[in-house]
Amino acid sequence: MKLKDKKIAMLIGPGYEDFEFWVVYMRMLEEGADVDVIGMEKGVEYASKHGCLTKEADFLASEVLDEDYDGVLVPGGWTPDKIRRDKDIVELVRKNYKAGNIIGLICHAGLVGISAGIIDGKATGSLGIKDDIINAGGTWVDEAAFRDGNIVWGRVVKDIPAYCRELVKALAE
To answer: pLDDT tens across 37-69, in order?
Structure first.
């Protein structure tokens, strides 16, 4: 268990991409990580983009701003465009990035990174956010997954295995 004693925040919101949340969430648990699910509201069953599964948030971002996380992971889908409007979620990502903690962004999750002002190197994701990444100062790279500084990037659903490998490697350091 490579991530035993690691504490991870995983963000959630309406329309999260099913696989980008659940596969990554389960992979982190499989490696022994303690995962807090953070959302904009508690007591709400967030439906996934494809409607397969639902999940409630354990905490609001405002409740965990002072927590010491080893990583903050953001799934894609419609969620990034929704949660980037929550100032506490954006601050959670920004604060953890500045602390040198791992930030995981896959597919459309780069939108949250843009709102947090942390995009300044190599980046990838869905082609739908390519222009947004470039306009935010990132350098677009068409690769399945990679790490640039303390950000781990994943392109799209089919790249989840490579993304998870990069996340586990980065979080285990």
So the answer is: 999 999 999 999 998 899 999 999 999 999 999
- Out of 50, 52, 107, 164, the active site residue is 107
Which CATH number does 7-172 carry? 3.40.50.880
- Note whether 25 and 10 are within 8 A (CB): yes
Q: Distance of CA 37 to CAs 64, 142, 144, 151, Å?
A: 11, 29, 25, 19
**Candidate list 50, 52, 108, 164, residue with the active-site label:** 108
- Please state the domain extents for the chain: 7-172
Nearest 5 degrees, angle CA 54-CA 168-CA 38? 35
Q: Is 50 a catalytic residue?
A: no
Q: Is 107 a catalytic residue?
A: yes
What's the pTM? Answer: 0.97
